């Protein structure tokens, strides 16, 4: 099935039918995917760095493909930025260098202002909820526009009225004695994330606003941006929280923790490592050494242990990504919504360079594992790739969305 292009820069193909695989690795609860889990199904980049008027459809397993400079990494950064804003982060924390995301040829307006626009759509119990955000990067960083809508009905709108004031005017749907409530809100945070603190939920209209905002926030909050760094994964590491960091440099510590937590999941992880790493693999172990640090080793099964420091870059990236796919928010460093049951949340894993450094066998095994995990509905993966054919082949009939990006010759 072919999905039509939804923007000047982005096209998509979803050509592989879904399949049933039975129990999914890492999903100890079993059961069918939950259709009511809020999830981001589209990313929109109206003017963000080199991407303009792009609407990127996102499936459970999505790969961004295209030549260098086409905006694959930029799209991941936009998604991560929306996720952090949805978690309540200040805009200055999310965009420490905002001018870097302003399109090069963007001209300032009469007030010498320049900025960018990003947005997304979240599907769930409330239907398709759209969020669109306008950020002013110059002369001062602030959120100057925001719109939350469902089915064409605007439930929340925020716009800059007076540039001299450190706030913006917001209006949200009430449907009571007054159809709309208006109030100033801070210009450094996403209004959607602040609504539960400002809306009482006394009228049907207010409850509709809160439900739409909650769906968007839940869809955005459980995001794990992952880019394994083999150069930082080889040395022993001190014991800490046991939560895997984005660069995976504390991989040995996490192995020490997870090996004892779930034997079934660890066995599946060892099987994945055995399929993608050279030589025999009987176990993967985190071992506490004399100075109190932890080192990672492969148990070869014949009395020989191989330290992770002796593995190649591709093997280390493969091992780290397999661990990510076979664990969840309790192991990965993410910021899940604490008020929402885990069964209603979907972990979104962002991977820049999903196939970077992998050989054909590793690429096939890792893509197959990702496809099986995503079918269960509790995890979604968005990654950039250089070899589209290789990852699609590795899915082995699983559902995959491929979004092709092209260089913008005018930016």
Ends: how far apart?
Answer: 32 Å
How many distinct helices? 9
Broad structural category: alpha+beta
Count of the domains: 2
Report the average pLDDT across residues. Answer: 84
The portion of residues assigned to helices is 25-40%
Main sheet overview = 8 strands, antiparallel
Placed side by side, the strands forming the largest sheet appear as 4-3-6-7-8-9-10-11
β-strand percent reads: 25-35%
The total of beta strands comes to 19
Rg (C-alpha, Å): 22 Å
Poorly predicted segments: 1-32
Give the topology string: H per helix, E per strand. EEEEEHHEEEEEEHHEEHHEEEHEHEHE
Regarding quaternary structure, what we see is single chain
- Tell the overall outline: elongated
């Amino acid at each position: 099935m072919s999905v039509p292009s939804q923007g000047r820069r982005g096209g998509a193909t979803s050509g592989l039918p879904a399949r049933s695989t039975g129990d999914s690795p890492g999903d100890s609860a079993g059961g069918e995917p939950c259709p009511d889990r809020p999830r981001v199904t589209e990313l929109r980049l109206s003017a963000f760095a080199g991407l303009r008027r792009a609407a990127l459809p996102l499936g459970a397993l999505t790969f961004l493909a295209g030549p260098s400079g086409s905006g694959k990494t930029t799209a991941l950064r936009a998604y991560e930025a929306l996720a952090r804003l949805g978690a309540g982060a200040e805009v200055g924390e999310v965009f420490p260098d905002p001018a870097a995301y302003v399109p090069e040829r963007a001209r300032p307006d009469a007030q010498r202002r320049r900025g960018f626009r990003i947005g997304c759509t979240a599907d769930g119990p409330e239907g398709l909820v759209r969020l669109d955000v306008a950020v002013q990067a110059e002369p001062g960083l602030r959120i100057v526009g925001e719109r939350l809508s469902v089915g064409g009905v605007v439930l929340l709108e925020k716009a800059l009225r007076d540039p001299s004031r450190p706030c913006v005017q917001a209006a949200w749907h009430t449907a009571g004695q007054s159809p709309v409530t208006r109030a100033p809100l801070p210009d450094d945070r996403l209004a959607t994330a602040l609504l539960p603190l400002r809306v009482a939920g006394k009228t049907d209209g207010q409850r509709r606003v809160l439900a739409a905002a909650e769906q968007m926030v839940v869809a955005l909050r459980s995001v794990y941006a992952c880019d394994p760094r083999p150069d930082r994964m080889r040395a022993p590491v001190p014991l800490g929280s046991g939560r895997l960091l984005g660069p995976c440099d504390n991989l040995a510590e996490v192995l020490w923790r997870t090996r004892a937590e779930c034997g079934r999941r660890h066995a599946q992880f060892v099987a994945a490592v055995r399929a993608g790493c050279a030589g025999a693999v009987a176990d993967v172990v985190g071992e506490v050494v004399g100075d109190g640090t932890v080192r990672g080793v492969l148990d070869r099964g014949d009395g020989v242990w191989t330290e992770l420091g002796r593995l190649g870059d591709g093997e280390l990236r493969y091992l780290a990504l397999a661990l990510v796919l076979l664990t969840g928010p309790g192991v990965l460093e993410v910021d899940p919504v604490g008020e929402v049951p885990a069964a209603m949340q979907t972990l979104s894993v962002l991977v820049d360079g999903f196939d970077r450094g992998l050989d054909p066998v590793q690429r096939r095994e890792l893509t197959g594992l990702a496809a099986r995990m995503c079918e269960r509905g509790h995890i979604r993966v968005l990654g950039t790739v250089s070899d589209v054919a290789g990852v699609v082949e590795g899915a082995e009939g699983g559902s995959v969305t491929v979004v092709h990006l092209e260089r913008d010759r005018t930016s």
